[in-house]
Amino acid sequence: MKSLLFSSKMKNKTNWRRIINLILIPVTAVVGDTVIQYMNPNISLLLKCFTDSATHFLLASFSWNYVETSSMNKRIHLVVSIMCGLLASIIDIDHFIAVGTISLQAATSLPHRPLLHCTTLFTIAALLFAIVSIRIHSIHLLKLSFIIVTATWTHHWRDGYRRGIWICPIGSTPPYSYFVYLIGLIVMPMGLQFGLRFVSDLVPKSKVKHAAPVYLI
Ligand SMILES: [Zn+2]
């Protein structure tokens, strides 16, 4: 009876943590976007870019922290959440690659969107990883595909409320309202968490024999 009460208390605690984590995602977005918007125009461009990158990082890290629920090792889970955030913030490196210089001024005034901002590219790559993960019975590869989706979608979704989502080679969606953007930031990790759980169930049922799934990350 005591252990039953204890496990129900722990479950409640975990649920509350997850709800707080979910709320933190749009809150971080609002804080990050507001800070950038109201920064003194004379303030260095470097600080603005750093704040922008940090916002992308936190949104992806919090999102992965919500998406992944089966991790047994807290430390590895933290490292993977940080890696997801880093992947999200490194995407903007394509601005520098496109202009061929490390000048912030040139990179931030690019007239078109560079390659890593194409949502189709990462979605197809992640989809392929997911299919292969089912075929080869690899939970690691499946989680990698969801990490890629979490990192890139949160980044593209945040950029998208100003410029739309770039579905290359078809074109771009129109920009959407700030409210839709915030709702999307909540719905996205919820959907991805459901998707990961659903596809994870398919992995142990794959036809590859003599291989047990390893739940590490
Ligand atoms: Zn971007």
Automatic annotation (TrEMBL):
PANTHER family: TRANSMEMBRANE PROTEIN 267. The chain crosses the membrane at residues 20-39, 45-66, 78-102, 114-134, 141-158, 178-199. It comes from the Eukaryota. InterPro entries: TMEM267. The keyword Cell membrane does not apply. It is a multi-pass membrane protein. It is found in: Membrane. GO terms for cellular component: membrane. The keyword Zinc-finger does not apply. This is Transmembrane protein 267. Keywords: Membrane, Transmembrane, Transmembrane helix. It comes from Daphnia galeata.
